[in-house]
């Protein structure tokens, strides 16, 4: 393409006029002129297989084939097959960009900006993403430029196709070394004769310059080989080791070159007549004044630029006059210079000065944290101009100097600097406003950057860039792997804001960081801006084909990805009193909705800590989770094509949410974690229920409603979202699953209500439909709760909770799967299934479909009961810990009813031949009463079945099964101990009697004995077991003694029991005596004393029984004529109750009650026996049986009473004895002798009592009754 013999000392002469074509001179060698060949490059190996599908690609190739084909220090031009094209495809017009359907993919967005990836990227760049690249994006022409060591690629970056029309330029002088700086290039504004831009490329090290006037003609004119379409030149005067570091477009055909030495040069690619021609001249003043001359000197040539600061940035802006440009350059130390350059290369220095100290002071004042960084670490990174000609509303909304914003280009230069302080670990960045007015350089407002502190990476392909597109309210800071979006707008007026404004400190406004993945091949290699169009024709009459956009944006060229647009959503919002703000929810939305995409080049996790508290993050997480559940977020479609895919997508969003929260260092409280877990459970359960709904639909005729459809239809309108017919929402079931999943507890509760209403109100005409609905409802109810439980247990650790225990109190949410409404209706559903299966037994069903449904419903009963009991347990656990008294009371009621419900529901399973399932349920919920009932009844059922078996083999087999069941029962004894054994023996005793308890062979721990001993009412069996099975005579005696003395009601039984107990004690005592005689003296004397006390108690009780028997014998002759108990009682009262005064109703009642019990042979209490003896009329005719009743009463008091009770009883006995006789008559001694008087005294009750007591004392002092006279 280029001639190797061209002069390198100056600009090449133009070979083509922009207005007419010229023939080549006769002395020129056509072979040495730049030539272009319009070709189509195959960018993949499938090109020849399907050539029509390949993208349109044009390659402009040099004729120096030997040079291009050579390999130089690892950089090789690889030849690829090419296909010649004779037809050129229609290209879109410049600036043509459809507003809708541009093919872009949104990578993330919030209320301030949207990041999208444009589809267009040359296949060759996509495949060659590992090699170094750099480029730029030009919104004015709609093209992107990317350069490698060997090629330049130009393509319309806004194209809607993934493989756009691409112009590939083979560079004539590729880099010699792989680590050399990449070529620098820029698109040149189109000439008057073309609509397409040109291209200029500068080789940084060699200084070679290549220029194509039009990217389109460079390819088209390949067929006219006589016409040269490119020129080249070499930069003269470069120092040794010096290289070009930046090319700045100064429009329309001028450029500013920035060198590593700190020098600047002006380069023009057209002459004064508009013809292609390259010329370069260095700027002598400003940042390079110390070089001393146009060509420098020997010293500078030798020392190079090692002692001079690098130029951080150079930017060009339009001047006040036509053809005039203003160049501002800033070096890294803070020195700024400004030139005014005229068309043709004339220039003048208009401002120059060192602002380092002023900048450092301003930054330190605005950002106190930067003061902790070393002062010498201060560095200027970039410079950009502030847009001019802004509307008044944008000027008013800006925090920059309003006066400077209104200045013209001839008055001052208004710009922004990106500066930094850096230490070993982090950097502090700031945006500083500067104004260059004549020889004055004034710093303005400072806007600290607080969200991004990553130091600049030394090996980055692109230095940090600062962009401020129109209208100047949002700045973009572009780093190699991040973009900072920072608001330059003002905050609403407040005292604090006014104080900061007077101090030139920009208050913190919107600021956010967009991070890219940390991959070697993924970095920003170029950038550009898109600005809102103001319908102008450009400066100097230049035609601008600007892409139409409403809001400012920064365009990024991301290596291996393509063009990425970061666009402000609505720039006018920054002018309102409520500008966009970064919230915890917006950050969560970005991480959740866009972080789940595996091909997203952005990264939302692990880069930096969010500036929000744990409470803010928790509340935002709950809000976002609720929105995902109800599809109220704009990131979820409300009318999905596949509801199942929609549900699974929402599940992935909730998974991403909790995963992201887990990666943050904030501590989310347990209440929030449980709320998030419950929401995720609902979504997982809803997905399963929807799958069941689709399965039910497939089993029903077209148009019939499933139980899911019925539930959604029956739910009250106030408990579900209304359909929006205008938006295409016509399916109520899908609509409910999209918007109302958060009410899933209501959905489950209605599973029974639907059946109740349909069945009781007669909405169906056949039992078949009820059978199917019952099966579907049972399936949904059980499956939903099972899925919720499974999800909770499997994901609890991820959510940071204990899934086994449901917490309560202190703000913990009620478990949605265990609400009072769900439990109540679940119980009713189980009871309905019980009744329905009892009335529609599967074995009697003739319809095979109904039979299968009934069998399936029967099989679901254990699982239904299990979920019912689990819900009860969860509700009880949560409610008991509540701080609300009403809820606490409800929790106690659930806890009290829980054992009863276990027994009631589990034991019912045996009625449906679900023995093993019932046993497993009882074991799971520790329902030992139900477990004992089912285990024992199963054995009894098998025994009953075996009794009716005719076949011996069947009987033997049944007996074997029974024996196995008994062994299992014994194993349950071993496993659960007395909690199960006692209940099992209780059932066995009620069902088969005491012998079954005593004969159970697999009780290896003596639970039968323990059971009998702990049951006082079974003492009559317990003492027999002690004697026969345990051989424990001592305990048998104690049992008999306790039974006879405290529990036995019949006097005859009591007498026998006490006698047997006495006999047992005596036998034990005799055995003990024998043992002591054999030398076994280890038995303590306390045991012997205890037995003596017990024997004495028995003797006393036997004496009382003897006295009661004596009294009964006394009245026995009277009751022989009685026909029944009532007649007998009447006869006794008539015969022996005559001494009780009629007015003493209480004594009559006591006497009557005591006599009734005596006639029934009940064991009388000592007090009752004393009442009968002292109140009854036992005259002289009964003296042969009872010599004196008062003496017997005193014996009763002595043997049966103790302490104060005995003393009161003795007083009562003597009082009644004294009042028995008429002492007034006895005291009448007038006319009586001593013998008569003594005889009268001898017939008194008192005399008889005292005499009887005296007589008793002769025989035994031990039985001497008390004689206490008060």
TrEMBL record:
Domain Nucleoporin Nup133/Nup155-like N-terminal: start-end pairs: 108-565
A single Gene Ontology CC term: nuclear pore outer ring
Principal location class: nucleus
Pfam family name, one: Nucleoporin_C
Alphabetized UniProt keyword annotations: mRNA transport, Nucleus, Protein transport, Translocation, Transport
Coiled-coil stretches noted in the UniProt entry, renumbered to this chain: none
Disordered: annotated segments: 1-55
One GO biological process term: transcription-dependent tethering of RNA polymerase II gene DNA at nuclear periphery
Keyword Zinc-finger: no
Domain Nucleoporin Nup133/Nup155-like C-terminal: 676-1262
Keyword Endoplasmic reticulum: no
Location within or outside the cell: Nucleus envelope
Gene Ontology molecular functions: structural constituent of nuclear pore
Family listed: Belongs to the nucleoporin Nup133 family.
Protein name: Nucleoporin
Species annotation: Triangularia verruculosa
Lineage per the UniProt record: Eukaryota, Fungi, Dikarya, Ascomycota, Pezizomycotina
């Amino acid at each position: 393409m280029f001639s190797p013999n061209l002069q390198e000392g100056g600009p090449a002469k133009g070979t083509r006029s922009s207005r007419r074509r010229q023939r080549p001179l006769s002395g020129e060698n056509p072979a040495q002129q730049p030539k272009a060949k319009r070709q189509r490059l195959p960018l993949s190996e499938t090109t020849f297989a399907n050539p029509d599908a390949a993208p349109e690609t044009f390659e402009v190739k040099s004729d120096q084939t030997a040079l291009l084909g050579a390999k130089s220090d690892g950089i090789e031009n690889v030849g690829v097959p090419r296909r010649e094209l004779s037809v050129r495809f229609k290209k879109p017009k410049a600036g043509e960009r459809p507003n809708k359907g541009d093919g872009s993919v949104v990578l993330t967005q919030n209320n301030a900006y949207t990041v999208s990836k444009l589809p267009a990227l040359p296949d060759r760049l996509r495949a060659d993403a590992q090699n170094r690249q750099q480029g730029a994006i030009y919104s004015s022409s709609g093209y992107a430029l990317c350069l490698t060591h060997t090629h330049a690629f130009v393509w319309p970056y806004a194209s809607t196709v993934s493989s756009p029309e691409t112009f590939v330029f083979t560079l004539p002088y590729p880099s010699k070394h792989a680590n050399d700086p990449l070529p620098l290039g820029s698109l040149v504004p189109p000439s008057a004769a073309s609509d397409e831009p040109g291209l200029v490329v500068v080789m940084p090290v060699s200084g070679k310059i290549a220029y194509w006037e039009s990217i389109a003609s460079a390819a088209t004119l390949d067929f006219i080989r006589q016409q040269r379409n490119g020129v080249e030149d070499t930069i003269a005067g470069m120092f040794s080791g010096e290289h070009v570091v930046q090319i700045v477009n100064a429009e329309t055909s001028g450029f500013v070159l920035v060198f590593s030495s700190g020098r600047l040069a002006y380069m023009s690619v057209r002459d004064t007549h508009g013809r292609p021609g390259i010329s370069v001249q260095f700027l002598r003043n400003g940042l390079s004044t110390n070089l001393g001359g146009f060509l420098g000197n020997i010293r500078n040539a030798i020392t190079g630029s090692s002692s001079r600061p690098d130029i951080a940035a150079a930017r060009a802006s339009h001047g006040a006059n036509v053809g005039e440009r203003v160049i501002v350059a800033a070096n890294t130390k803070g020195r700024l210079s400004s030139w005014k350059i005229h068309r043709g290369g004339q220039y003048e220095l208009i401002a120059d000065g060192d602002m380092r100290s002023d900048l450092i002071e301003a930054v330190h004042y605005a950002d106190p944290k930067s003061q902790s960084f070393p002062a010498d670490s201060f560095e200027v990174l970039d410079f950009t101009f502030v847009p001019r000609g802004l509307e008044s509303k944008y000027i008013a909304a800006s925090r920059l100097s309003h006066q400077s914003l209104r200045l013209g280009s001839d008055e001052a230069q208004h710009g922004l600097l990106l500066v930094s302080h850096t230490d070993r670990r982090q950097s502090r960045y700031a945006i500083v406003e500067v104004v260059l007015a004549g020889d004055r350089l004034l710093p303005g407002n400072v806007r600290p950057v607080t969200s991004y502190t990553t130091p600049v990476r030394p090996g980055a392909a692109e230095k940090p860039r600062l962009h401020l597109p129109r209208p100047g309210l949002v700045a973009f800071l572009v780093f190699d792997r991040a973009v900072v979006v920072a608001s330059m707008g003002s905050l609403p007026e407040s005292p604090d804001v006014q104080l900061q404004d007077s101090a030139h400190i920009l208050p913190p406004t919107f600021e956010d960081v967009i991070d890219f993945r940390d991959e070697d091949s993924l970095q920003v290699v170029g950038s550009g801006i898109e600005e809102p169009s103001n319908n102008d024709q450009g400066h100097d009459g230049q035609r601008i084909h600007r892409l139409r956009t409403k809001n400012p944006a920064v365009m990024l060229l991301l290596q291996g990805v393509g063009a990425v647009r970061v666009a402000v959503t609505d720039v006018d919002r920054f002018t309102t009193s409520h500008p966009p703000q970064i919230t915890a929810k917006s950050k969560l939305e970005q991480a959740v909705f866009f972080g789940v995409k595996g091909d997203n080049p952005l990264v939302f996790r692990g880069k930096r800590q969010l500036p929000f508290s744990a409470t803010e993050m928790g509340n935002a997480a709950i809000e976002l989770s609720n929105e995902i559940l109800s599809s109220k977020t704009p990131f979820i479609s409300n009318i999905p094509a596949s509801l199942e895919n929609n549900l699974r997508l929402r599940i992935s969003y909730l998974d991403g949410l909790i995963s992201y929260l887990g990666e943050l260092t904030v501590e989310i409280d347990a209440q929030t974690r449980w709320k998030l877990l419950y929401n995720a459970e609902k979504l997982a359960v809803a997905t399963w229920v929807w799958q069941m709904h689709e399965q039910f639909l497939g089993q029903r005729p077209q148009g019939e409603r499933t139980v899911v459809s019925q539930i959604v239809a029956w739910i009250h309108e106030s408990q579900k979202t209304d359909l929006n017919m205008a938006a295409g929402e016509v399916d109520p079931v899908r609509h409910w699953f999209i918007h109302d999943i958060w009410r899933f507890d209501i959905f489950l509760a209605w599973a029974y209500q639907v059946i109740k209403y349909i069945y009781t109100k007669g909405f169906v005409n056949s039992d078949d439909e009820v059978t199917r609905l019952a099966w579907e409802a049972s399936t949904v109810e059980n499956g939903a709760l099972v899925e919720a439980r499974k999800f909770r247990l499997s994901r609890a650790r991820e959510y940071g909770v204990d899934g086994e225990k449901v917490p309560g109190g202190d703000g913990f949410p009620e478990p949605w799967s265990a609400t009072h409404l769900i439990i109540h209706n679940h119980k009713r559903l189980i009871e309905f299934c019980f009744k329905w299966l009892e009335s529609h037994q599967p074995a009697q069903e003739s319809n095979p479909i109904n039979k299968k449904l009934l069998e399936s419903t029967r099989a679901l009963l254990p699982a239904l009961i299990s979920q019912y009991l689990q819900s009860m347990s969860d509700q009880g656990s949560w409610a008991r810990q509540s701080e609300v008294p009403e809820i606490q009371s409800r929790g106690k009621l659930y806890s009290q009813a829980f054992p009863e419900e276990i027994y009631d529901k589990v034991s019912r399973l045996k009625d449906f031949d679900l023995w093993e399932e019932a046993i497993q349920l009882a074991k799971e919920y520790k329902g030992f009463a139900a477990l004992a009932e089912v285990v024992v009844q199963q054995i009894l059922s098998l025994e009953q079945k075996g009794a009716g078996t005719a076949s011996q083999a069947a009987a033997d087999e049944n007996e074997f099964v029974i024996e196995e069941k008994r062994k299992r029962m014994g194993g349950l004894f071993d496993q659960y101990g007395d909690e199960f054994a006692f209940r099992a023996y209780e059932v066995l005793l009620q069902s088969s009697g005491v012998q079954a308890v005593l004969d159970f062979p697999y009780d290896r721990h003596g639970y039968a004995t323990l059971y009998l001993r702990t049951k006082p009412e079974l003492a009559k069996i317990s003492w027999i077991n002690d004697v026969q099975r345990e051989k424990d005579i001592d305990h048998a005696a104690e049992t008999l003694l306790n039974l006879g003395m405290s529990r036995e009601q019949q006097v005859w039984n009591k007498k026998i029991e006490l006698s047997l107990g006495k006999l047992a004690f005596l036998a034990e005592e005799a055995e003990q005596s024998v043992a002591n005689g054999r030398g076994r003296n280890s038995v303590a004397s306390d045991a012997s004393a205890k037995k003596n006390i017990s024997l004495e108690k028995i003797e006393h009780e036997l004496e009382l029984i003897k006295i009661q028997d004596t009294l009964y014998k006394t009245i026995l002759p009277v009751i022989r004529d009685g026909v029944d108990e009532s007649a007998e009682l009447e006869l006794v009262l008539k015969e022996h109750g005559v001494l009780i005064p009629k007015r003493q109703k209480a004594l009559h009642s006591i006497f009557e009650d005591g006599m009734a019990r005596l006639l029934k042979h009940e064991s009388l209490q000592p007090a009752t026996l004393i009442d009968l003896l002292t109140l009854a009329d036992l005259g002289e005719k009964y003296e042969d049986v009872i010599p004196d009743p008062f003496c017997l009463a005193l014996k009763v008091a002595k043997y049966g009473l103790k302490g104060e009770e005995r003393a009161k009883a003795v007083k009562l006995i003597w009082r009644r004895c004294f009042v028995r006789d008429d002492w007034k008559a006895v005291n009448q001694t007038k006319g009586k002798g001593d013998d008569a008087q003594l005889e009268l005294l001898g017939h008194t009750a008192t005399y008889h009592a005292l005499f009887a007591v005296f007589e008793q004392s002769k025989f035994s002092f031990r039985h001497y009754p008390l004689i206490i006279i008060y």
